[in-house]
């Protein structure tokens, strides 16, 4: 174990030990360690709790420990605070890997829930990538387990449980698709969809009458701290082929700090929307999704709109990361390896076969999608956890 990792473990355990001196409190902690603010499922749960005026105190932990924006003192205090809250809060809900949760032994009267930040089961993660280029090595996870201590984990469909059970090394009975996925509720609220779409259009100056292409690639790199954008798509070719009739919204992965290219050739054609807090809101204004290996395809499928996959490096990505299903046969749209062929496909109206493929994919990927997932989560998970 590295000195930094050992220090982090010690700091969390100090906070946890201090917390054990106090009684467990009726408090909900919503925590993420990969963003500076809540998004997705956690944001929906926070808003639902605020809207229903429940009396429980809600604490938000949204931080990137030991990153560029944190000094060492601030990072150390954050680790101690996280350990303290884990020991003293009835319910802790996380949406990704959350280090402090894995270095303590949960206290009786507390419950830890993983809502995860992605639907479906596409690219491998967790224990599924141990000893791969992207994952941790076996010695590290033997010394310090990952994804432990979950009492409940959400999945979008029960058929994905084997993949998540493998990735978390948790028993299948700890996973449920019965509640649905909170962040998909947006797609079943017509008023909220209209308001969100109007806000996005104003914010990025989207012209009426042009097709909107949402380009949302995932990151490349063996570490999230060294994430970078893929470089295969030639945006100048896209602008030349499609610029008269379309605009592209570029949504970089949140792990990637690099901005969109500022080439004058792309002016008027490309909008960098990476700063928008909710990718699902960007989906509402788009006519087609172009991605590579992003799980955004699952939520986008609920809209029934066409999507394409630009993946010239899929063989290398398979080696580095791997998939839970056959990439070429499993994605709900055509796969392209050159910008020219992708642009040619984007110039034509979507084929009914492509749309049927999307609808079938959505039906297979969500057991429950009805706009009430957040409410169910609060009434069936939060309320019982806080009950005296």
CATH superfamily membership of the largest domain: CDP-glycerol glycerophosphotransferase, N-terminal domain
Gyration radius from CA atoms, angstroms: 21 Å
Query: What is the β-strand count?
Result: 12
How many domain regions? Answer: 2
How much helix, percentage-wise, in residues?
A: 25-40%
Q: Would you identify the regions where 5 or more consecutive residues have pLDDT less than 50? A: none
Per DSSP, the total helix count is: 14
Structural class: alpha/beta
Determine and state the CATH class of the largest domain: Alpha Beta
For the largest beta sheet, what order do the strands appear in spatially?
A: 2-1-3-4-5-6
* Percent of residues in beta strands: 5-15%
Order of helices and strands: HEHEHEEHEHEHEHEEHEHEHHEHHH
| Biggest sheet overview | 6 strands, parallel
| C-alpha geometry | globular
CATH topology of the largest domain: Rossmann fold
The N- and C-terminal alpha carbons lie at a distance of 40 Å
Mean pLDDT: 90
The CATH architecture term of the largest domain is: 3-Layer(aba) Sandwich
Description:
With 388 residues, this protein is an alpha/beta fold. The protein has 2 domains: 3-181 and 370-386, CDP-glycerol glycerophosphotransferase, N-terminal domain (Rossmann fold, 3-Layer(aba) Sandwich), CATH 3.40.50.11820; 186-365, CDP-glycerol glycerophosphotransferase, C-terminal domain (Rossmann fold). The protein is built from 14 helices and 12 strands. The strands form 2 sheets. It has a 6-stranded parallel sheet, sandwiched between helices. Strand 7 (211-215), helix 7 and strand 8 form a beta-alpha-beta unit. Helix 2 (40-51) packs across helix 14 and helix 7 packs parallel to helix 12. The longest helix is centred in the N-terminal third of the chain and has 17 residues, at 3-19. The two termini are 40 Å apart.
